Amino acid sequence: MWAEVKYLFLKEVTLEWRQKYAFNGLLLFTVSTIFIIYLSLRVKNQAGLPDHLWNALFWIIILFSAINAVAKSFLQESPGRQLYYYISVHPISLIMAKMIYNSLLMVVLAVIAVVVYGTVLGYPVINTLMFASVVALASVGISSVLTMMSAIASKAGNNTVLMAILSLPLLIPILLLSIKAVKNAIDDLTWADTSDELITLAAVDCIGIALGYVLFPFLWKS
């Protein structure tokens, strides 16, 4: 199975490399959103945004970037390619490869967003390692949920709006945990003070991956 996962993952990377406009479009969306926030708020002092506003806006940027990045996961697949997957590969291999690829894509976009966002609007985070851990865990959780919802939406006529509606109730807990954990990183609290949020985020990631592992084969056969 893992040989299939590796093959499908490399296929996703190859397609992204050939169609650079897809990643460039996501990058443009993320950077443009940050620039619009900068122009709207007109931050002129060196202190930058208030910490709570910086935190909230960062996760709004991550959320919409994730929806744009992961929505194409299944929605862009042609009927012919889906038939090829149906005949050639195990459904678990397909969903695992999609989740791994989307998680890595989200981490890359998050890193770029942090660099641009921090440069333009200030970087109030003190505990960068804790912040990076939260962003990585949240990226995996968000991408896992959106990948599964993209698969469901593809079975319902490639409806992107349906994917967003189905995903929102599952994404809210991840975002709330992430906002609280990043606040701790901004306030330079200890790892012990943030352990509950980090453990819960990791558990949510595992649940999202497990649901895809269990439910996707039934969805794929329908």
Question: Can you describe this structure in just a few lines?
Answer:
By secondary structure, the chain is an all-alpha fold.
Architecture overview:
- The protein is an all-alpha fold and 222 residues long.
- It has one domain (2-221).
- The chain is built from nine helices and no strands.
- Helix 1 crosses helix 6 (91-121).
- The model has no long low-confidence stretch (mean pLDDT 86).
What's the layout of helices and strands?
Layout: H1 2-18, H2 20-41, H3 51-70, H4 72-75, H5 79-88, H6 91-121, H7 128-154, H8 160-186, H9 191-221
Rg: 18 Å
Q: How would you spell out the order of helices and strands?
A: HHHHHHHHH
Query: Helices and strands: which structural class?
Result: mainly alpha
The helix count comes to: 9
* Oligomerization: single chain
Mean pLDDT: 86
Detail the poorly predicted runs.
none
- The tally of strands reads 0
What fraction of residues sit in β-strands? Answer: under 5%
* Count of individual domains: 1
